Amino acid sequence: MSKEVDGYIEKQDSSQKEICKKLRKIILETYPSIQEEMKMGVPWYVGKFYIVGLRDSVNLGFCIQGLSKKEIDHFKGRGKYMRHLKFRSMDEIDEKKIITLLKLIKD
Predict the structure, then answer these.
(1) How is the chain split into domains, by residue range?
(2) In this structure, are residues 56 and 48 in contact, taking their beta carbons and an 8 Å threshold?
(3) What is the CB neighbour count within 10 angstroms for residue 57?
(4) Cα separation of 95 and 107, whole Å?
(5) pTM of the predicted model, to two decimals?
(6) Per CATH, which fold does 3-102 belong to?
(7) What is the pLDDT of residue 49?
(8) pLDDT digits (tens, 9 = 90+) for 51-88
């Protein structure tokens, strides 16, 4: 785990902080050896995932390269390479669904 990522998460407002911690835990448990770093000011996971705390939500970003249209439809946004899931509360986090989506992303 990265101390820079720890610092980023600790700076978030309380509700975003809890969401960020949970999403980070899910990523690190799903991919125990994944490289975690700060890139473009947010926690970044080998160009496959990112976490960003926003004013009233947290986005969990996914690299969508190589995914089918049906798989891409699970995500929000219109990015060509990255899309995201948006969380406004801990209640919106469906850990099983997130793990399934994380595992769509190939090495």
Answers:
(1) 3-102
(2) no
(3) 16
(4) 21
(5) 0.94
(6) Aspartate Aminotransferase, domain 1 (3.90.1150)
(7) 97
(8) 999 999 999 999 999 999 999 999 999 999 999 999 99
